[in-house]
Prior knowledge:
The complex is a heterodimer. By secondary structure, chain A is of the alpha/beta class. Chain A has helices at residues 45-52, 75-80, 98-102, 116-129, 145-157, 175-190, 202-208, 230-238, 297-305, 327-332, 342-346, 353-358, 373-386, 403-416, 433-448, 460-466, 489-496, 498-503, and strands spanning 7-16, 19-29, 34-38, 60-65, 68-70, 83-86, 109-110, 113-114, 163-167, 194-198, 211-216, 219-225, 261-270, 274-282, 286-291, 312-317, 320-321, 335-338, 421-425, 452-456, 469-474, 477-483.
Amino acid sequence: MSEQPLVTLxxxxxxxxxxxxxxDVTVSVYAGKVQVLLGENGAGKSTLIKMMAxxxxxxxxxxxxDGNTVTLPTTRAAEAxxxxxxxxxxxxxxxxxxxxxxxxxxxxxxxxMVDRSAMRNRARAALALIGLDVDVDTLVGELGIARxxxxxxxxxxxxxxxxxxxxxxxxxxxxxxxxxxxxxxxxLRSRGVGMLFISHHLDEIAEVGDTVTVLRDGEFVAEVxxxxxxxxxxxxxxGRSIEEQYPRNAGGAAETTETAEILAVEHLSSSGRFTDINxxxxxxxxxxxxxxxxxxxxxxxxxxxxxxxxxxxxxxxxGRALPKANIKAAIKAGIGHVPEDRKGQGLVxxxxxxxxxxxxxxxxxxxxxxxxxxxxxxxxxxVATKLxxxxxxxxxxxxxxxxxxxxxxxxxxxxIAASTVxxxxxxxxxxxxxxxxxxxxxxxxxxxxxxxxxMVSSELPEILGMSDRILVMRDGLxxxxxxxxxxxxxxxxxxxxxxxxxxx
Amino acid sequence: MSxxxxxxxxxGFDYKKFLANNGALVGLVVLCIALFIATPxxxxxxxxxxxxxxxxxxxxxxFGMTFVIVAGGIDLSVGAVAALAAMVSSWxxxxxxLPGWLALVGGLVAGLLAGMVNGLANxxxxxxxxxxxxxxxxxxxxLTLVISDGRPISxxxxxxxxxGNLGPVPMPIxxxxxxxxxxxxxxxxxxxxxxxxxxxxxxxxxxxxxxxxKRILVTVFALAGLFAGLAGxxxxxxxxxxxxxxxxxxxxxxxxxxxxxxxxxxxxxxxISGTLVGALVLVVIRNGLNLLNVTSFWxxxxxxxxxxxxxxxxxxRRKTRNG
Lengths: 504, 323
Ligand SMILES: Nc1ncnc2c1ncn2[C@@H]1O[C@H](COP(=O)(O)OP(=O)(O)OP(=O)(O)O)[C@@H](O)[C@H]1O
Ligand SMILES: [Mg+2]
């Protein structure tokens, strides 16, 4: 320990009202090293790094930068010390351009006016670093969540920090983009930048990390090298071992003779998004949709769910055609939609967990226009317990829950609604390993009961591990279909990225 | 067992939390005590009834405004719609010869329709509520002048009754209490009320959960129009005539009452009880300043500062709560 850390959180603690979230934790970031923070949803990882980023003030302990005790009253103060942060939840202004977002708060000026060309150039350079090829004048609100995440990363990179905090930067990215991020991280590390990295993808830890600090319930559990086997990491993190990461009872219902077709999508087209999509999903099936970011997966899911218009084609549930762009009819037919962006599309952050769980059933359980308070509440309580949503009370604002627990709540809404056709868009984004298995088991339960699931995911292992059939999309087209048996990482990627390979 | 000196500790009553969540109520109580000490004229039966009557119009307008603000919008037209509703009612009675009770209902319907137009323009016409209701402010005031030809029209007895007395109790206070109960019931217990919070908090999440966001918005503005109509009738009933310039500028009082009551202008937060307290704060301050012989010019200055203070304290409170 001859080397002095760039920054240390020393015996810090943090409470929110009656809840103690961080208790006596110490963690350091060294120059040229990647320190990994590992813990279940709600373990306190984000809270911890927010103290380093100047968002929260520790209630106990101290922050040491270059050997000096400091206070970080604002994010600006942290930035001034060379600490840049990529937060778990996106912090972008949707109505402003990519360039403006990247340079927000640091706009280059000339004669007292914004120097737009300098701003664009610097933004372009930042995007180039992570290989995002989009016009910097595009409004951020027009980008999908993965590209927004890349903009957020570019923004932090453009600060030229000595210390970079990355809170689940890869949750929204596909393997391809994750690799460019890791290349940037390797480059930063060789230039002596110290990094603090959070991810629920255990395989990434050995790939980029040096040491791992494990947290459980806000307390320090262990510090181990990043090369520690994944099983051991899981055991440290959740306090027990997890038997099977992907517990799919493959072919459970597919074997039954009566393979009722539940969802049928025929000749579905939406100009500029996807073209002539055809597929069916039978009872008991999980169909995975793989593809690169921008392949049209989310757009397809939204059209099926009734969230967006489409130009032609039909969506049929149990033999009955659904009207276009009619969410209510879709829900009535049994469709439940878990959107890709839980903060922007899934949740009302100021409202309680109870309210958020109940929105889809608010009207259907009402009598004479009066909300069924007691019933909604007991159903919400039951689902929160079943999904093990970690919260203080069910009346607490959902915005205060950890990211993974928020995701479970979006899921829970459709469990309450007893949806039988679930359209999942990145269902386990930001969910810890233990909770992931719980969500997978939930998917098994739904399909075992005769439901059907369509799952879009950028996590290939998840697609491969949980799907009975895999559709691969490329540039708005169905590029191919693979059965669980024939699907491999390579087979999927070949179908998904053929164009990219051709162009290069 | 630690010593349990405070009886209120039972059932986890938290004083700090109560104070933080009821800043406006605490302010109101402090204000009343200060006025009680400052002038003997404050705590008299007559003055309290006066306050009740004055608060009724502002509060009823503000209840409607609460729906709109909770749903994430703003309604600048409530004052003008109040005047229009009262004028329509008087016109129906005097010029169209309808029975008084029907004229009263006609006034309320006029308010409801005006609000509905606001809602349609906002939800389906995609006009921001600020613009849609600003246009309605002008249209409604204009129509009021057209109908009345710029002159007051006397009200039917049924409307005047709203401004009169029920035994010793002024009717406006009765109407106020009933309106508060109804509004609070709608907001807390009905599907549409619960949906307003979702729409104001995150319209996209509400939509993807299957809530009919557009219909909810139309209902919200229609309710605001209905409450504005009722407020207009209360005001006209007190004067026994519908005035073409009645309730001018009242929309600002209504917005102030809602905001002082703890609602957020960005939507998703707000309560009827808070709004009632907010309206009382405004009216009690005006009343107190009158009793203390402060000119109306200075009153405006004081009211402005109070609004800034109330909202400032609220913002500060939210910030500390979030760490
Ligand atoms: N502002 C807040 N008010 C109250 N409780 C909070 C607040 N912020 C976080 N918490 C609580 O602190 C705990 C830790 O949350 P945190 O976001 O740090 O978890 P995390 O480890 O980052 O989880 P995830 O992996 O899901 O992102 C959670 O139980 C959460 O509910
Ligand atoms: Mg987190």
